[in-house]
Design goal:
The chain is mainly beta. It has three domains: 4-126, Immunoglobulin-like (Sandwich), CATH 2.60.40; 129-232, Immunoglobulin-like (Sandwich); 242-351, OB fold (Dihydrolipoamide Acetyltransferase, E2P), CATH 2.40.50. Helix content is 5%, strand content 48%. A hairpin with a 4-residue loop joins β19 and β20 (222-232).
């Protein structure tokens, strides 16, 4: 398996630079570059995408296409009317799930006036997501024929038990199914974020299903290692213990109850209308959790009050910035509104 990290260019930070110069008063000018050269740290030989082969798309604010073609074939300087433009680069077109097809890119909106010259510097990140599976002996015995079917609205992809490559998918919901010649059986589903690479081991058991998570983060993608045990339907998540913790979405239906709830720490510095998802953080009294480790939608979050000193010391993001993205189990009282969201207060116990 080839693994590489694109340093500098492939990060989660979006950057643009603009310079103003004197032109004639009848138009504006756009020029483009990549913010820094593509660099890589590799464990095996790997080919990086050639920036000249990236696809550059420039559209006006009324939807008209100004340029759609190879980045390497672009005009050195493009004269356009004053206005607002959406510009983007993509390493490849990615319309449906496929093997070994990571997509990198960046996009931004540029506003230019008559006589202005805007120089746009693209800083790329991975846009799609990936999954790679391995299978235990128990799983192969129980599901000894067929294959895994990855299902999305954009399309499906069959994953053989002997497959070693990464399957790349659009960010969003993906269904993982077992498919034979006669039937397709749903196993589980995941909501995956842009830049996330899942390494999933499938096991099988006659007992209850469970999941164990371990997360590491590099500069390019969130790499999530997960073990999923497929067995009888698990109905034991009642919030009575950390082992039976309920999800954020389940907790929202248990207002007033004292429960164990699990989620990923995704942010902090909350207000009645916002959540800060990227550090540094300044408030240690609360955190935001969600079911997706890369959640950036405030409405999908669950607010958590850190009132006890020991728990605040261990979980707050001001003094523990490495907690961002970690899975946590919390026992507290589910409330209908804390910073305008369903949340957890009076947290008395936690586990990570």
């Amino acid at each position: 398996m080839k693994r590489f990290v694109l340093m500098g260019v492939l990060s989660s930070i979006i950057m643009a630079s603009c310079t103003i110069g004197a032109l004639n008063e009848e138009g504006a000018s756009l020029s483009f570059s990549f913010a820094v050269p593509l660099k890589t740290t590799v464990t095996k030989a790997v080919s990086l995408p050639d920036t000249n082969s990236f696809i550059l798309l420039i559209r006006g604010n009324t939807g008209e296409t100004i340029y759609n073609g190879l980045y390497g074939s672009r005009p050195a300087e493009l004269t356009v009317p004053a206005g607002t433009y959406e510009v983007s680069v993509r390493s490849i077109e990615f319309e449906k799930p496929a093997f070994e097809t990571p997509q990198y890119g960046d996009s931004k909106v540029i506003v230019v006036s008559n006589g202005e010259k805007a120089s746009v510097a693209f800083l790329c990140k991975q846009l799609n997501s990936g999954m790679r599976f391995s299978f235990s002996e128990n799983f192969l015995k129980k599901y000894d024929n067929g294959r895994i079917l990855l299902e999305q609205e954009a399309g499906n992809l069959e994953y053989l038990f002997t497959e070693k490559r990464i399957a790349y998918l659009k960010a969003g919901n993906v269904g993982i199914n077992h498919k034979t010649s006669s039937a397709t059986t749903p196993l589980f589903s995941r909501i995956i974020g842009a830049g996330e690479i899942y390494n999933i081991t499938l096991d099988a058991s006659a007992a209850e299903s469970s999941s164990e998570f371990s997360i590491t983060v590099d500069t390019t993608v969130v790499r999530i290692n997960e073990r999923v045990i497929i067995g009888e339907e698990f109905s034991g998540a009642d919030g009575s213990s950390a082992q039976k913790a309920v999800s954020v979405s389940q907790a929202k239906n248990r207002i007033g109850d004292t429960l164990w709830v699990w989620g990923y720490i995704v942010g902090g510095d909350m207000s009645s209308s916002s959540v800060t998802f990227n550090g540094p953080f300044s408030k240690d009294s609360h955190i935001a959790i969600a079911e997706n480790a890369s959640e950036k939608n405030r409405d999908a979050c669950f607010s958590v009050e850190l009132s006890r000193a020991a728990i605040k010391s261990a979980l707050n993001l001001v003094s523990n910035p490495s907690n961002l993205g970690r899975k946590v189990f919390l026992k507290g009282v589910v409330v209908s509104s804390y910073f305008g969201l369903n949340g957890l207060k009076k947290v008395s116990e936690y586990s990570m």
